[in-house]
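Hi,

Apologies if this is the wrong queue. I'm a grad student, and the batch job for ABC-type quaternary amine transporter from Stackebrandtia endophytica produced an output file that my downstream script rejects. I'm not sure whether the problem is my script or the file. Here is the sequence I used:
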Amino acid sequence: MTTHATSIVCDGLSYQYIGTHSNAVDDVSFSVEPGQVAALVGPSGCGKSTLLRNVAGLLTPTAGHLLMDGRETVGIPADKRNIGWVPQSYALFGHLSVAENVEFGLRARKVAKAERAKRVAHALELCRIGDFAKRSPEDLSGGQRQRVAIARALATNPKVLLLDEPLSALDPQLRKQLRADLSALLAESGVTTLLVTHDQGEALAMADMVAVMRAGRLEQYASPQELWANPANGFVAEFVSEASVVATTRRADGGWEAAPGLVIPGAVDGGFAALRPGDLHIAAEGAKLTVTAAEYAGDSWLLSGDLIGGARVSLLTETPVTVGDSIVVAVRPRTKIAMVKQ
Ligand SMILES: Nc1ncnc2c1ncn2[C@@H]1O[C@H](COP(=O)(O)OP(=O)(O)OP(=O)(O)O)[C@@H](O)[C@H]1O
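Support response: The file is valid. Your script probably expects a header line. Output copied below for reference.
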């Protein structure tokens, strides 16, 4: 769809709401390469939507720069930025057909009729909703409605696509299915995309780059693989991979352990070990763990428990275990544990 993709640079961007005492977005810097999909993730209230609204031009930064294709964008009104905005609710018009919804933004921009028809047809095809062109969006499933909202945004040939929680209106089963479809669609469209999600799984699965935010600050900006392998700190490890971040101590043999007997293979320096549920298994030798919760997950159990020393960790196992049981756990063979600073 896009012939020329746009780069986005946020440079020291801050935003403070009137009447508040701190920045909702605080000195955030990152850049998105042309055609990339970047996800903003972080706990509720960390500033994701505020940042997205600044990029959209719905809010004006209190400090910093926002560059698109190297050009300062702060000060340019929202309707002159050529941005495709897909709100959480999709905001489709029920009294218009799917095709008319997609055409809506083009009419508003006074695009000529023949060109409108061409762009609508292309957007419908790209989003695989041509079969529903004459239907009302109200007669479509949640997933199909989402495609209409994206087609409507893409039809205007935006420089940048902004998606606010694109999958949150869908049920959990459908969310997983549709994130692959949405990724494929975004890749095919080639448009530079910023998306907000509070679901770290969604961010890892869909984005080229992920911005992890906490209390307005950017904690880390990296590819999903890099975030997983080298989380910048304990917060990122816990948020991105549901890790338990446990302090290590030096063993007499020079190695490091996260609890008596729980050796962290390959750890050269001490620090905190980010232990993910998939990192540990029940073993003959290792550390004692008292099971405090056992959640059945179909082909496995998700156990949580306390190690000697008090740290709480989780692990996936196929062995049925009951709450109160005492088990021995170790790091699975050939598993690299991420070490972080707290
Ligand atoms: N209009 C407003 N006036 C004052 N403060 C606001 C306003 N909107 C948001 N905030 C505050 O700014 C901070 C960031 O909010 P924001 O909505 O950007 O977070 P978020 O990460 O998108 O959260 P969520 O995941 O819950 O949508 C929060 O502390 C919030 O209370």
